[in-house]
Design a protein that fits this description.
The structure holds 2 protein chains of 2 kinds. Chain A is mainly alpha-helical. Chain A has a domain of 61 residues: Helix Hairpins. Chain A is built from 3 helices and no strands. The relative contact order of chain A is 0.13. Chain B is mostly helical. The termini of chain B are far apart. The chains are: A mainly alpha, B mainly alpha. At the A-B interface, α1, α2 and α3 of A face α1, α2, α3, α4 and α5 of B.
Chain lengths: 100, 176
């Protein structure tokens, strides 16, 4: 006996909300990518929790793919940030309005 | 209130607190290190929920590889601290509005849904059985994901390559 499933949902929801706020509010490309990582982590927590609720291994196997996708996403994202920093010399998203 | 539920609530507090500290830090090195604490907490929650293999992977991939990658990038870029205004008002107001609506709807859903009151039972997925399950049932997805990682590797290499044809004006002001 651990906890009601609703508390796991609440924990993951609050964590997802924090990632979303970090993504929307911060003005730095690195913090935006960190927000995406927090959101992926919240999704992983909810998947493992539901895997325990239904006693199935499907949720845990999805989490494995979430990890792989997080790794791919962060490597390409950080390479893009380094490239953008080389082009403009800043990581502020407001400085990339170069089509204007 | 068993010992497992006490551990769960302590870990939840640790995760939420360290994530809240992480997203409000101005210094990105501090933010990344707070987030490492948060991911360690998530790994312990995975272990509590009976996924020891995923707990190990969370420590290795998230807290180890991804956060160290962030740390390298933050250190490499030589960003000036204090240039960013934390929480500008015109972004903070819509974020807070969306967040309040999200919390209200989520709380309502969790309270009204009878399935969320089911108490979780402890169980453990043996790592060996988990691996056999994955490679038995999802072998095609594993191959696709490995291809995705290869593509991401090639993409990161291509993006990270220094191009020779940089305009002179950009080359003088950037740190090339």
């Amino acid at each position: 006996m651990i906890v009601p499933f609703g508390h796991v949902l609440l924990l993951a929801g609050l964590l997802f909300l924090m990632g979303m706020v970090c993504m929307v509010v911060r003005r730095s490309l690195i913090m935006i990518l960190l927000g995406v990582e927090i959101m992926l982590n919240a999704a992983a927590i909810i998947l493992v929790g539901s895997s325990l609720l239904w006693q199935q291994l499907e949720g845990q196997s999805i989490v494995l793919f979430v990890f792989a996708i997080a790794g791919a996403e962060v490597s390409v994202g950080l390479a893009l940030i380094v490239w953008a920093h080389r082009q403009t010399g800043s990581v502020d998203p407001r400085d990339f309005n170069r089509l204007k | 209130m068993t010992v497992y539920s006490i551990i769960f609530y302590l870990l939840a507090l640790l995760i939420l607190g360290s994530t809240a500290m992480a997203i409000t830090r101005r210094n990105m090195v501090h933010a990344v290190i707070y987030l490492i604490f948060s991911f360690f907490g998530s790994a312990m929650i995975f272990y509590l929920f009976g996924a020891p293999f995923l707990a190990v992977l969370e420590v290795i991939i998230y807290a180890g590889a991804i956060m160290v990658l962030f740390l390298f990038i933050v250190i490499m870029m030589k960003l000036k601290p204090g240039q960013e205004r934390l929480f500008p008002l015109n972004q903070w107001v819509p974020a807070a509005l969306c967040g309040i609506v999200y919390i209200a709807i989520g709380l309502g859903l969790v309270i009204s849904e009878p399935g969320s009151r089911i108490t979780l039972k402890t169980a453990q997925a043996d790592p060996g059985l988990f691996g056999q399950y994955i490679f038995g049932k999802h072998w095609l997805s594993i191959e696709i994901v490995s291809l995705l990682l290869l593509v991401a590797l090639i993409g990161a290499l291509l993006l990270g390559r220094r191009s020779k044809k940089v305009p002179a004006a950009k080359a003088s002001e950037g740190e090339l």
